[in-house]
Amino acid sequence: MLRALTSALRLPGPWRPLRTRGCASHGATGDPEIQVRALTGGDQGITEILMNRPSARNALGNVLVSQLLEALAQLQEDQQVRVLLFRSGVKGVFCAGADLKEREQMSEAEVGIFVQRLRGLMNEIAAFPAPTIAAMDGFALGGGLELALACDLRVAASSAVMGLIETTRGLLPGAGGTQRLPRCLGVALAKELIFTGRRLSGAQAQALGLVNHAVSQNEEGNAAYHRALELAQEILPQAPIAVRLGKVAIDRGMENIPTQDRLEGMAAFREKRPPRFVGK
Q1: What are residue 255's phi and psi, to 5 degrees?
Q2: What is the per-residue pLDDT across 164-177, written as a single tens digit (0 to 9) for each?
Q3: By C-alpha distance, which of 164, 133, 156 is closest to 221?
Q4: Which of 167, 199, 202, 255 is the most buried (most CB within 10 A)?
Q5: 16 has pLDDT over 90
Q6: Is 166 annotated in the active site?
Q7: pLDDT band, very low/low/confident/very high, at 14 (cuts 50, 70, 90)
Q8: HSE on the CB side for 168, CA within 13 Å?
Q9: What is the Cα–Cα distance from 247 to 275, expressed in whole angstroms?
Q10: Is 255 a catalytic residue?
Q11: pTM here?
Q12: Catalytic residue among 48, 70, 102, 146
């Protein structure tokens, strides 16, 4: 069943809407808010997810989150996906963050559930087996920047605007930004940016190391996408399994894994005794 869904999702050629089975708390599917395509020819192996919710500047509402989760579930088992690229179909915007207008209509319990789903989405992006790239051609605020931070690589137009601005609205970054931003920039700088809610241009973000590349915007408004595509093309010729395992090794190495031996080593240090490691 998953193979059939994936095949339907990734037919070569033009953009296609994702076929959902019913999203959102209201139970209505509505118009598709993402489109997916697998590139062909020399770009075969690159798959793109296009966020296309112009009425809300790609704000992360229930439907958009549901469709992104479904797309990731369908694509993650597909070995043909060598690089996954996130881009926007709305000029001047990557993602404006969580849909606060939609959130205002939710009960307290519904807000809690939605935040958990949003956090789950970012974790799914971060855990995607192939390299992921965010092409930020415009505003990436709050949850929009958290989505980009969940990707392995980030490319921005120099004129793009990004920031974890939640504190300016009486909120906190709730979808992983408080963890991923410090790992990207260091604790002190991440705290400064979150405490102040400061917005950065793409050029400033590159200087800090928040994005891998910043490029001058073009008339079409998709310069970051073209640079991200070039970056994906550099990855394509490399050994697929080695790239995927390299991602696993880096990601796991950055985490403090609470193995029994690690806990024993810390306890032995505190108690000033030799550690008794058991290989677990």
Answers
A1: -95, 150
A2: 999 998 888 989 99
A3: 156
A4: 202
A5: no
A6: yes
A7: low
A8: 11
A9: 31
A10: no
A11: 0.82
A12: 146
